[in-house]
Prior knowledge:
The protein is α+β, with helices and mostly antiparallel strands. It has a domain at about 95-310. The protein is about 30% helix and about 25% strand. The chain is built from three helices and 13 strands. The protein has helices at about 1-25, 35-45, 55-105; strands at about 110, 115-120, 140-150, 155, 165-175, 190-200, 220, 235-240, 250-260, 270-280, 285-290, 290-295, 300-310. The strands form four sheets. Strands 1, 3, 4, 5, 6 and 8 form a six-stranded antiparallel beta sheet that branches. The model is unreliable at about 150-155 and about 155-160 (pLDDT under 50).
Amino acid sequence: MIRETMTKRHSGKATKKIAQGIKEQQFCSPTRLHGCTITRLHDYMPARFYAFTLTELLVAIAILSIMFTLLFIPMTQAFDNARRGRIMANLQNAADFALEWMVRELTQAVDVLPQERVSANGQPLNLLDDDDSLNDDDTFSRLDFIARFPDEEQVTAPPQSWSYQVITYYLRRSDPSRPYQYMDAAQPANRRQIFRAQWIPDPKNEPEPTQQDQRGRWIVQGAWLLPNLEQLVNRLISHNALTPADMDVSDLRFTVERRPSQDPRLRKPVAVVIELTVRQPTPGARIKGGNPNETDVPSLFIRRRVKVVLPNVQ
Length: 314
């Protein structure tokens, strides 16, 4: 009995060992050896974090760069168009303001003084604009007239020594002591503006013109040829700019239409045509060739042309 019992026990243990060996051989069989090895390695290795590869990052950066480029171009164009729109609106407002002021006063004019004028030595009117050479003729960029205002019902406050005052529109640089400069460079820009001056003529220094040269131009002197009426300190009533300093009046022309007559004294003015061009640099414009008066892109500009009838001239 004892031997049979011991034999059964030993046979049971052997059977269990054989079964366990078979299971281990099945678990670590060649078909599952790779998975078994990786599983056991993970038990002894630290935790591993997964991330993008360098190639994936480069591809993502390239795609984002292309997208930003495609979006940046229309956004930049939209901003430029918005700035252009603001500049054009400012130019229109400036031109309309100057024209409205001049039209309102010209409708009250009782006389317009002759434009064709020269000095005693034949020198024409030369204003302080973009060209200060001796051959520059700025005759049609200045207008002198006498006005009657409705609130006074009389010619503008005549002084004791003279019977009238003169209102003058003319073209001049913002700073007459410096040369003309369109773009900002080493010094700030010095552009052209329309100025309005109200002044009192001196009968001794500025007599009324009575003589003409061979070309039919009136011979004048004094303030009638003065390029900067701001110098008339004692006889200057008012002097102000009609256009802002950050805009450039590239063209100003007054054309006086007169009655046809052989006698110059009877050729009374009937209308004044005002031609005006105001410009400003385009956003992002740069100096061209080192010349601050030229830009690499065309400027933004506004042109106006107005005809003013003079109903009070008799």
